[in-house]
Amino acid sequence: MLLNLLTGIPVMLICLLFQAIFVGISLRQYIRFRRRHEVLDKPLWQIALLALVMLLAMLGNFLQMVAWAGLFVLVGEFSDFSTALYHSGVNFATLGYGDIVMSERWRLLGALEAANGILMFGVSTSMMTAALTDLIRHGRPSPSDEP
């Protein structure tokens, strides 16, 4: 168990770093774009901007799955990266299909990745909520705009 924790926690920290980078980039670019463009009162631009934020969040989550898959290959749990990545995606998204099961020696890594994934999806969701809330607030007329 201790070996699993000592092996998995550094990957969790790497995932936290990935998530922080992608959240920072996404929100910074969102704010810059919104400040420069007055076209955000058009629904298509709002959808495009939210889609971009979502895609960046998903890219960050995917890179985290790749990191876990790399760990699974590194410790010898899987011989090919594609199987490791599939298993990592199932763990990270907390699907738990059970069609591929890790060995008893490393199975706690799957639970660590699932805990990591649910937390990171929560961060991605909060980022999307922040962007959506801002768009709703930005699109609403201010009291001074009313007749």
UniProtKB/TrEMBL annotation:
Gene3D superfamilies given in the database record = 1.10.287.70
Q: Which residue intervals define the domain Potassium channel in the entry?
A: 66-133
**Lineage: superkingdom:** Bacteria
Q: What keywords is this UniProt entry annotated with?
A: Membrane, Transmembrane, Transmembrane helix
Annotated transmembrane regions = 6-27, 47-75, 114-136
Instruction: Report the protein name in the record.
Output: Ion channel
Which source organism? Azotobacter beijerinckii
